[in-house]
Amino acid sequence: MNRRVPLARYPGMNRFVLDWLGGDERFLRRGTHRETAPDVRRQPHDRGSLAAALEESNRRWGISTDASLGPWARGESLTIIAGQQVGFAGGPLYTLAKLATLVRLKRDLESQGIPVTAFFWLATEDHDFDEVASLNLPVSTLSSTTEVNRELDLHCIRAIRKADPRAAVGSLPVADSLSSQLISFYDIERPSWLREGISFRDSFAELIASMFGNDVVLVDSLLPELRRAGEPLFQRIHACRNEIQTALSARASELQAAGYREQVVPGDGDEYTLLFEIDENGIRRPFVGSATPPERISTSALTRPLLQDFVIQPDIFVGGPAEVAYYAQIAPLHDLLSVAMPRVALRGHALIAPSRVIRTMERYSIDVPDIFDSPDAILAAREAEGVSTVRRIAEEAKGDLIRRIGEIGELALPADHSLARSFQRSVGHIEYHFDALARRAANGLVRKDRERFAATRRAVAMLYPDRHVQDRVVGWY
After folding, report:
1. Runs of H (alpha helix) within 213-301
2. Residue 65 in contact with residue 148, Cβ under 8 Å?
3. Could you identify which of 60, 98, 111, 387 might form a hypothetical disulfide with 442, taking C-beta atoms 3.0 to 4.6 angstroms apart as the criterion?
């Protein structure tokens, strides 16, 4: 059973993205490629050697790329791409939504006779260990009010940091404590993608391969051949460093003037981080000079899309709201560095619940957008007669009492003007307590239907746990 939710009702949706979807192209064009540097777009590097390296790495993860990489290397297929940090056990639900969007787009295009190569970029160079090494899992627990109804809670498994906070996480081994917690939670045998000593990169890649087969080509962002293919771009970024800083500052001012915020803010000294170096121990440090071998150069959040667009040369990029906003922020850099910009598409958004929960929502006329509220508020909106009567009586009583206080003030204030502040405080207290009383009474009416309240609470807890949208926080595995 499928239900649709307007993105404008989706909590926390990036306002820039909503305006962009609505047709505002001031900062990011839609629909067509930007005609920038077609010579760079056609052949900026030797695709053959990179294709061979990609084929080898994907083979190790159980993916056959024969049908995809050949046409891409010859420039004969449409190229689409998405990407994600290599989170433990596949990360949160939106990772699956990205992959599903990518595969759906690929199959739709192929059904029209268009050959397509779909890439999924593994952000192995990121160093946010805490984000990678944690996972929220849905768990049903007995409610304190009944032995029949259950409500959803979240169980977080995480690894205690044992790595340098600047270490690129992709090559780090998955902490055994993480694997043990997941295996124990689901009471399963240890899967091969969690074998002892496996890296976050290989664990993530093998899990994705088991789900999507040969539909996507996985790209390790630290693959040496990819870094070497990006060397001309690294040199341009280093040579144009001052111009890039100026362009980013100007774009930030334009975004702020339009009421938006820049997705990536400058660091110390009001400069944007563009590149890092990765030392022999896998530690990311600030980039200091052009003598660094390309295999040891790492991109920042702002330059990662540029490397992707320069080396892979996608026709279409599929990303989440933040990633779409990245492109609006760095759009001037594509022209400055002669890198063609792909079309940008927003990933699909998906929330998942058992069919029994959906049936419960239908039974009580709860629309999907309604779950982005508290159970009390949802049910109060449907307890129209009793709740509205309580509110009407409370408003009438509050109004009567405030009027009476006003009459007292008319008599007393001329005699003692110092009473004015006391009267104002009294009115404020009365309004507050009457409103609180009305809310408690309305909630009492709502809670009288225990079955309905428990069912609604479960739907909210499942799809909006701890007031976070499910796909952002709950692991899909």
Report:
1. 224-229, 231-239, 241-257
2. no
3. 387
Query: What are the helix (H) ranges across 28-135?
Result: 38-42, 47-60, 66-73, 93-110, 129-132
pLDDT tens digits along 214-261: 999 999 999 999 999 999 999 999 999 999 999 999 999 999 999 999
d(CA 451, CA 145): 10
Within 10 A of 22 (CB to CB), how many other CB atoms are there? 8
CB 82 within 8 A of CB 312: no
Alpha-carbon gap, residue 361 to 355, rounded angstroms: 10
Q: How far apart are CA 336 and CA 472, in angstroms?
A: 34
Q: In whole angstroms, what is the distance from residue 140 CA to residue 135 CA?
A: 16
Cβ(224)–Cβ(295) under 8 Å? yes
CA within 13 Å, CB half, 270: 4
Q: For the residues of 129-142, what is the DSSP string, one character each?
A: HHHHTEEEEEEEEE
Q: How far apart are CA 158 and CA 139, in angstroms?
A: 16
Distance CA 7, CA 26 (A): 21
Longest alpha-carbon distance in the chain: 94
Q: What angle do CA 139, 145, 148 make, to 5 degrees?
A: 60
C-alpha torsion sign, points 137, 142, 144, 149: positive
DSSP 328-348: HHHHHHHHHTT-PPPEEEEPP
Say if residues 458 and 72 touch (Cβ distance below 8 Å): no
Tens digits of residue pLDDT in 403-438: 877 777 777 666 666 666 676 677 777 778 777 877
Looking up tokens 């405080």, which residue turns up? 425
Residue with tokens 């391969």: 209
Distance CA 237, CA 305 (A): 13
